[in-house]
């Protein structure tokens, strides 16, 4: 199994601003405010967190093939 990545680039779907963020390993992140346009991002239906919806890398539990939160 590959190493779990703990950083992901979140890209705002409204303005396209992207920022590298550290992902929590012990909780899901359900909300994320875009630093540029201040849009509050929420997971898409069926996704467990904002990293799975808008990140370049899925959250650590999903990377490991586990259920997220």
Word description of this protein:
With 69 residues, the protein is of the alpha+beta class. The chain is built from 2 helices and 4 strands. The chain has one domain (7-62). A two-stranded antiparallel sheet has the order 1-2. Strands 3-4 form a two-stranded antiparallel ribbon. The longest helix has 5 residues, at 50-54.
Main sheet makeup: 2 strands, antiparallel
Q: Total helix count?
A: 2
> What value does the average pLDDT take?
92
- What is the N-to-C succession of helices and strands? EEEEHH
Helix content: 10-25%
Rg over CA atoms: 12 Å
Major sheet: arrangement of strands: 1-2
Rounded to the nearest angstrom, the distance between the terminal CA atoms is 21 Å
Strand content: 15-25%
Care to count the β-strands? Answer: 4
List keywords for this structure.
single chain; 69 residues; alpha+beta; two-stranded antiparallel sheet; 4 strands; 20% strand; globular
Quickly describe the structure:
With 69 residues, the chain is an alpha+beta fold.
Write the layout of secondary structure elements.
Layout: E1 7-11, E2 18-22, E3 32-33, E4 40-41, H1 50-54, H2 60-63
Antiparallel strand pairs: 1-2, 3-4
């Amino acid at each position: 199994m590959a190493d779990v990545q703990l950083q992901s680039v979140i890209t705002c779907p409204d303005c396209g601003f992207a920022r590298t963020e550290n992902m929590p390993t012990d909780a899901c992140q359900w909300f994320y405010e875009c630093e540029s346009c201040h849009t509050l991002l929420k997971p898409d239906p069926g996704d467990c967190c904002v990293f799975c919806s808008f990140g370049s890398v899925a959250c650590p539990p999903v990377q490991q093939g586990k259920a997220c939160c």
